[in-house]
């Protein structure tokens, strides 16, 4: 047998290693090439996985800040500020050194010395401040004591800290909207507030109008924010020598209104008093120049304080243009004018008063038994519904409808205020048509009534009520002037004059319903109204008690009216008066008297008629000098604080002061409570605005007792009880 043998070759280990080395070399080359390509791609494109690396680096070392535009100021007709921008500051302390460089510390290094400085300006003791400055935290705030600080306080704190080379205290400022007059045509002026407190959201750091004129003219008032962009180092400091990219802010335009602060303040004070005494559900009052439509004063209740927002939840409705109601007998002014124009009003003819049957029902006078056979002139004086039903029947329903449409009922006035109602005038059924003769069965707004009344006061030409006199653009120095807008009515000049003369009967006639509205020295055309309120639940009118809207319109002087004043008071508590008309008189009489005195005196009114002074600038004055200066002007002032220098004042510089208005001066020392005996609630709230102290009220009227004695130390966040009591006629 042949033996077979197999030859086995030995493997060369050096050859295998060479192959592996080549493979690894190629792999490394490929990987390096890939990395190089990737780095090249990143260098060229500047991004990775969708991340913009250039932008990220830029964000890391760049700082972009908002340059806030100043919102335009709203002024009254005489240049007194009504709504304006203000800055408030919040103080905080940096305690960590991780944001500091070795040569430029940003944190608090000497807490005891810092506390000694701060205690002079905020209502915290040195011990309390030291305790906060030594906490184990990156940064701390000072609660309400370090919030809402004025620019003057911040400047003084910063100046003293810099002088002693003390670090770590910072201030954050935010723009707010200040309404320095408190309750002042608040729903008509409106509100502007910040949309967000997000510092990174530039679009939402501006103030935005959310009500009234602030909302209607927001685009004109708000301006445009600018930006500032620059490079910083890792400690947050600006890198020297760099070029700052800056886009300047464009400030908003200023708006000058037709409102007269003197008359508006008087109206608000009178409304306050009536609200306290009679607690009506709603009140409106509007004073307008008869020939131009300029609204000199307008107020409503409920209302609110624009700065503190106190009362804002009671109603967001601007009653001047959003309050639709049945006007009642003040509509007879318009019926009378139409009847005179159509030749159907015969003042000496007589009719049987009490009630009259019409298609579908019966119309009664407010005295259901009537006054027997009386003349139509007496019917006007007594405000007989039956008399005016006869007028509409005689002129014809279609003719009367033409007048209603011509007066503008059922059509918005167009005052450029948000949410304006157009009212309604259905005018379908015979009884419904007849009822419009005495203001029932249609709904109107106060603005519509003012426009209609102007046809009588302005010789047959209706004028649209308006609030904005002119707009001033600070950037371009351009001015937009608003002019009166007239509409020819169906009423002739002769008819308007006759209507005014007949309306004096309501005051001068022994049976007149407006006798209580007589003002010595002036002849007034007036018409009262007592409108029923419709209950939508029962689909019937309320009856009895004070469930009415009591109103009056007055135009004066009769021979050539300068002003129209229209007042409505809904469901007041009588509280000692016999009729709702007596409540209305408490508003109408003092305001109309003052307005007529003002008009007759012209621009240079006598001091016997209207007492006024201009508020000086007392900031940085010594407290003693400021008080002396106010006393020399015969003005009352209340001083808050134990310091020696004035750092804040109310009202602001240049504001006009009237009728012993309270002036409040805040010093640089620890805050103290002034003697507020006899102050109104709104005066007390001025102290709250300036100090941050909360007041808790008991009762209604004027301050009769305060929880802490005058000159007691107070601090923000602390509640102080205030007792209010009515002032009797004897006390007044």
UniProtKB/TrEMBL annotation:
<comment type="similarity">
    <text>Belongs to the transpeptidase family.</text>
</comment>
<dbReference type="Pfam" id="PF03717">
    <property type="entry name" value="PBP_dimer"/>
</dbReference>
<protein>
    <submittedName>
        <fullName>Penicillin-binding protein</fullName>
    </submittedName>
</protein>
<feature type="transmembrane region" description="Helical">
    <location>
        <begin position="20"/>
        <end position="41"/>
    </location>
</feature>
<dbReference type="InterPro" id="IPR012338">
    <property type="entry name" value="Beta-lactam/transpept-like"/>
</dbReference>
<dbReference type="InterPro" id="IPR036138">
    <property type="entry name" value="PBP_dimer_sf"/>
</dbReference>
<feature type="domain" description="PASTA">
    <location>
        <begin position="670"/>
        <end position="726"/>
    </location>
</feature>
<dbReference type="InterPro" id="IPR005311">
    <property type="entry name" value="PBP_dimer"/>
</dbReference>
<keyword id="KW-0812">Transmembrane</keyword>
<keyword id="KW-1133">Transmembrane helix</keyword>
<feature type="domain" description="PASTA">
    <location>
        <begin position="609"/>
        <end position="669"/>
    </location>
</feature>
<dbReference type="InterPro" id="IPR005543">
    <property type="entry name" value="PASTA_dom"/>
</dbReference>
<dbReference type="Pfam" id="PF00905">
    <property type="entry name" value="Transpeptidase"/>
</dbReference>
<dbReference type="InterPro" id="IPR001460">
    <property type="entry name" value="PCN-bd_Tpept"/>
</dbReference>
<dbReference type="InterPro" id="IPR050515">
    <property type="entry name" value="Beta-lactam/transpept"/>
</dbReference>
<dbReference type="Pfam" id="PF03793">
    <property type="entry name" value="PASTA"/>
</dbReference>
<keyword id="KW-0472">Membrane</keyword>
């Amino acid at each position: 047998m042949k033996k077979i043998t197999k030859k086995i070759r030995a493997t060369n280990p050096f050859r295998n290693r060479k192959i592996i080395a080549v493979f690894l070399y190629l792999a490394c080359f490929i990987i390096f090439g890939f990395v190089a390509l990737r780095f090249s791609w990143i260098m060229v494109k500047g991004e990775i996985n969708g991340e913009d690396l250039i932008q990220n680096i830029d964000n890391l070392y760049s700082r972009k800040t908002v340059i806030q535009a100043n919102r335009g100021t709203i002024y009254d007709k005489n240049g007194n500020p009504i709504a304006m921008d203000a800055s408030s500051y919040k103080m905080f302390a940096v305690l960590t050194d991780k944001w500091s460089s070795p040569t430029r510390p940003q944190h608090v290094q000497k807490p005891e010395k810092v506390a000694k400085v701060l205690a002079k300006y905020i209502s915290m003791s040195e011990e309390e401040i030291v305790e906060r400055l030594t906490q184990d935290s990156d940064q701390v705030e000072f609660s309400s004591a370090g919030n809402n600080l004025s620019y003057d306080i911040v400047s003084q704190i910063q100046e003293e800290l810099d002088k002693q080379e003390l670090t770590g205290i910072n201030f954050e400022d935010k723009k707010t909207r200040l309404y320095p007059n408190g309750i002042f045509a608040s729903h008509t002026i409106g509100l502007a507030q910040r949309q967000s407190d997000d510092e990174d959201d530039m679009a939402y750091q501006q103030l935005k109008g959310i009500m009234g004129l602030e909302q209607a003219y927001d685009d004109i008032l708000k301006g445009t924010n600018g930006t500032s962009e620059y490079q910083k180092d890792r400690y947050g400091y600006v890198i020297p020598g760099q070029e700052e990219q800056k886009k300047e802010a464009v400030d908003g335009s200023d708006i000058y209104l037709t409102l007269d602060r003197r008359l508006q303040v008087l109206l608000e004070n009178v409304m306050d008093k009536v609200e306290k005494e009679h607690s009506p559900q709603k009140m409106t009052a509007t004073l307008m120049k008869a020939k131009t439509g300029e609204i000199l004063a307008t107020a409503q209740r409920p209302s609110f304080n624009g700065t503190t927002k106190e009362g804002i939840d009671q109603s967001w409705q601007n009653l001047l243009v959003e309050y639709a109601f049945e006007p009642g007998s003040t509509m007879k002014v318009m019926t009378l004018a139409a009847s005179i124009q159509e030749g159907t009003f015969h003042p000496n003819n007589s009719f049987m008063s009490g009630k009259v049957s019409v298609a579908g029902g019966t119309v009664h006078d407010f005295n259901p038994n009537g006054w027997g056979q009386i003349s139509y002139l007496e019917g006007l004086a007594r405000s007989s519904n039956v008399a005016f039903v006869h007028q509409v029947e005689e002129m014809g329903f279609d003719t009367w409808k033409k007048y209603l449409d011509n007066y503008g009922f059922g059509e918005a006035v167009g005052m450029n205020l948000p949410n304006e109602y157009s009212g309604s005038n259905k005018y379908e059924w015979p009884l419904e048509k007849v009822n419009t003769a005495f203001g029932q069965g249609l709904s109107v707004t106060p603005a519509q009534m003012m426009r209609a009344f102007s046809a009588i006061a302005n010789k047959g030409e209706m004028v649209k009520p308006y609030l904005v006199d002119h707009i001033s653009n600070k950037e371009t120095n351009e001015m937009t002037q608003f002019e009166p807008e007239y509409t020819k009515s169906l009423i002739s000049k002769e008819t308007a004059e006759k209507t005014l003369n007949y309306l004096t009967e309501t005051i001068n006639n022994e049976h007149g319903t407006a006798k209580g509205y007589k003002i010595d020295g002036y002849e007034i055309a007036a018409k009262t109204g007592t409108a029923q309120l419709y209950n939508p639940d029962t689909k019937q009118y309320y009856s009895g008690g004070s469930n009415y809207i009591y109103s009056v319109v007055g135009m004066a002087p009769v021979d050539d009216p300068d002003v129209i004043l229209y007042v409505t008071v809904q469901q007041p508590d009588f509280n000692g008066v016999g009729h709702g008309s007596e409540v209305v008189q408490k508003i109408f009489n003092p305001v109309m008297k003052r307005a007529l005195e003002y008009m007759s005196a012209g621009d240079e009114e006598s001091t016997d008629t209207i007492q006024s002074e201009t508020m000086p600038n007392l900031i940085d004055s010594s407290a003693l000098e400021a008080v002396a200066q106010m006393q020399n002007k015969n003005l009352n002032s209340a001083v808050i604080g134990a310091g020696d220098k004035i750092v804040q004042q109310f009202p602001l510089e240049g504001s006009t002061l009237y009728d012993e208005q309270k002036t409040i001066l805040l010093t640089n020392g620890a805050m103290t409570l002034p003697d507020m005996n006899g102050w109104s609630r709104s005066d007390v709230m001025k102290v709250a605005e300036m100090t941050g102290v909360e007041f808790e009220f008991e009762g209604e009227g004027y301050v009769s007792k305060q929880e802490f004695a005058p000159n007691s130390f107070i601090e923000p966040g602390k509640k102080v009880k205030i007792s209010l009591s009515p002032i009797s006629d004897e006390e007044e």
